[in-house]
Write a structure and sequence with these properties.
- It is elongated, with a radius of gyration of 28 Å.
- The chain has one domain.
- By secondary structure, it is of the alpha+beta class.
- The protein has 5 helices and 8 strands, in the order E-E-H-E-E-E-E-E-E-H-H-H-H.
Length: 191
Amino acid sequence: MRATSEFEIPYTGLGIGRHTFDFRLDGAFFSEFEPEGFTDADITAETELDRFEGMMHFDVHVTGSVVSACDRCNAPLKLALDHRVRYVVKFGEHTHRTDDDIFVLGPAEHLLDVREFLYESTVLGLPLRRVHEEEEECDPRVVRWLTGSVDHAPDAEEDEVQEEVDPRWAALKGLSSTPSEEDEGKNEAKH
């Protein structure tokens, strides 16, 4: 696990103007957020903090790749990422996030923790539909099952070993919760 300070910018010591920072984001970084949708990452985040008198713009440009599961076959899929986002950070009475996604830093703050910005920028850059470009790249067992070529799920073993059934339960297997045709005939005769 990385030190939090690696992703903190001491903005109070920065003068008015533009300041650049680069960050490397990998699977360890994203594991802190319990990401949904990808398992590993190799991302470069180039950022620019543009400081003004009463506010800052924090621009994030993430490039690289993440490993996700294919929506079609669930096999690992490497996705390229190239996404830009601008965040607005204002100075105010207390630290909070507004409904407009504007971050407000109170007077007691002196560090800007950018982890959430970097995570959010990456997630926003991911495509909504994540599939292999060609169906041939997908897991062939899953594709056969999806097209109806086989009648069992790909996770089911084709030569499944029969489990030993306790004889007491085997006797109950013959019982049915739905009435048989013979039972229905008896019920109709009663009426």
